[in-house]
Amino acid sequence: MRIALCQINPTVGDLAGNVERILADARRAAEAGADLAVFPELCVTGYPPQDLLDRPAFLDDVDTAVQHVARELPASLGVLVGAPVRNETPVGKRLFNTALLLADGDLVDATSKTLLPTYDVFDEYRYFEPCPERKVMEWRGLRLGVHVCEDMWNNEDQAPYHLYASNPIDELAALGIDLFVNLSASPYAVGKPIERRLLIQESCREHGVPFVYVNQVGANTELVFDGDSQVQSAEGEVLYHAPLFEEAFSVWDTDAPGEPVESARLGTEVEEVTAQIHDALVLGVRDYVRKTGDGVFEKALIGLSGGIDSAVTCAIAAEALGPDRVVGITMPSAYSSSGSVSDSQALAENLGIEFHEVAIRPAVDAFEAMLAPLFEGTEEGVAEENVQARSRGVTLMAISNKFGHLLLTTGNKSEMAVGYATLYGDMSGGLAVLSDVLKTEVYRVAEDINRRAGREVIPRATITKPPSAELRPGQVDQDSLPPYDVLDAILVGYVEEHLSPEAIARETGYELALVERIAKMVDRNEYKRRQAAPGLRVTGKAFGSGRRLPIVMQRTRVDAAGHEETVEGAPAAAGVDA
Ligand SMILES: Nc1ncnc2c1ncn2[C@@H]1O[C@H](COP(=O)(O)OP(=O)(O)OC[C@H]2O[C@@H]([n+]3cccc(C(=O)O)c3)[C@H](O)[C@@H]2O)[C@@H](O)[C@H]1O
Ligand SMILES: Nc1ncnc2c1ncn2[C@@H]1O[C@H](COP(=O)(O)OP(=O)(O)OP(=O)(O)O)[C@@H](O)[C@H]1O
Ligand SMILES: NC(=O)CC[C@H](N)C(=O)O
């Protein structure tokens, strides 16, 4: 049997567009002599459809879209597509997350997802009822073990579960199948390609059954899907591997399976991981701009400080959209270094983007004069510093409003973790490009950008200067933060691995007092992150919908002797110098 792997990029809610994409690949599959075309999980709606699934009219439209796909398919081609299907019984959640086998105008067979991920960014049990039974789909004489995404992920590393009670892979194999077929919508995170590779390999080897895996590609809001569709032999050798971060189409023949191919871009080396992060961010920006509204965003807008974060954000935007669709604005204040303008200008020239200078001094002076009577007798401090960041925010949002540009925010994960950003200042904007990229990784992405270009795109001075908010004379980030390699190691433990300060101090060897101070900053700045622009997720634990912590909390505990101990307080107002 010839099987087409259709790694398409659906847009959430775009039923007409998604149907068109499915039919285009179905026609291609038929032309290539395929018997079956496999598409990703929920490809008719795009993943994740979230609460669109609560709208009856949307579900009616999905049914119509599926019928249309079936009707318009090339004759005798079978397609496996993912769509939500109503649960007609009166018990349980109202929908199933289903893989539909369509051919010749009809629904031939269907099977639904059993393991519904409900952790991190996934919320499937909110909508779907788990499928209680396993079945084999027969097509063109082959017994197919069709299942949906998480159904193949019954491994102990899946937070926050131990093993699921059911194991669809083992259960399908026990029914006697010729081939596993997985329809996925599995977002990228550092480490994911290698994890998938090994998981599929384990299933193949354990059961002696080959595996066809088809994943969605493209970005939908914060999630970036890398694709990574593949075929593995019964021995767990890779026979086909789709390119990451782009649409792909390929036909694989079960009767002529071919030789093992090179395992490319697994992300086992640091440079590979950095390159993957870079590609994920580029795709994330491109698809956000392309898929939001009615193509409202002709251009992206970035405040250029001469620093590393705005430079990397800008270079990614230029790659995603083309340099003619990116606008950089430098906005010097009284405390800006001369490099803030010249390095920004050099970056703009290197990228070939539109570039303007708007001095914020008149605005800052005006605010100071306006507030002088009220602030009389007080010491200068964060309030005055933040007026600068906010004057820049107002300026950028004015430009955004006037020309309809999308303002990109530049804060990285390290800064967003500890609240090192100004609300309604540099946090103004619609999409946070780097908010899941630690500062130490931002430097690696900058080097990667220059390496790929084979020239200096990000100016060397931008990479080597000490990071500074430039909100007061001589300020550098390290006045109030530990060096970024130290900070990032602590943040990985606290944010990504959920470790206690004590465990982090033990593991890293850093002083407990330092680790506790950072942990406290992370906790206290939850309110800021809740108001932040959505960010592109590239790690297993990003700020955003996959990390839900209370804003209002007091962390206390009782020691063994029954005494109350304050662990971390969360007073009503706290800046970064907690
Ligand atoms: N729990 C809570 N719930 C709701 N609101 C809360 C709150 N705690 C404080 N607030 C409010 O938040 C305000 C404080 O937040 P905010 O006004 O942003 O100000 P804040 O966090 O105090 O200051 C911003 C800090 O970020 C640094 N910064 C700024 C800009 C760029 C960079 C950089 O290098 O990238 C660094 C800057 O040096 C400064 O230390 C308080 O005045 C209060 O109104
Ligand atoms: N002089 C400036 N001109 C234009 N934009 C600025 C300027 N200063 C700050 N910004 C904007 O505010 C963001 C936060 O800047 P800041 O310099 O305070 O911190 P940062 O996190 O070190 O960022 P960067 O590495 O980009 O400098 C910048 O990324 C930039 O978008
Ligand atoms: N859509 C899904 O079921 C995704 C969950 C899965 N573990 C993944 O990320 O690959």
Automatic annotation (TrEMBL):
- Which processes are annotated in GO (biological process)? NAD+ biosynthetic process
Under Enzyme Commission nomenclature, its number is 6.3.5.1
| Keywords noted in UniProt | ATP-binding, Ligase, NAD, Nucleotide-binding
Q: What does this protein do?
A: Catalyzes the ATP-dependent amidation of deamido-NAD to form NAD. Uses L-glutamine as a nitrogen source.
List GO terms (cellular component aspect). Answer: cytoplasm
**InterPro entries in alphabetical order:** C-N_Hydrolase, C-N_Hydrolase_sf, Gln-dep_NAD_synthase, NAD/GMP_synthase, NAD_synthase, Rossmann-like_a/b/a_fold
Q: Which family does it belong to?
A: Belongs to the NAD synthetase family.
* Residues that hold deamido-NAD(+) according to the record: 386, 415, 528
Q: Which residues constitute the catalytic centre?
A: 41 (proton acceptor), 113 (for glutaminase activity), 149 (nucleophile)
Pathway, per UniProt?
A: Cofactor biosynthesis; NAD(+) biosynthesis; NAD(+) from deamido-NAD(+) (L-Gln route): step 1/1
The residues that hold ATP are 303-310, 410
Tell me where in this chain the CN hydrolase domain is found.
Answer: 1-256
- Give the protein's recorded name: Glutamine-dependent NAD(+) synthetase
CDD domains, alphabetized: GAT_Gln-NAD-synth, NAD_synthase
Class of enzymatic activity (EC top level): ligase
GO MF terms on file?
A: ATP binding; glutaminase activity; NAD+ synthase (glutamine-hydrolyzing) activity; NAD+ synthase activity
Q: Which HAMAP family match?
A: NadE_glutamine_dep
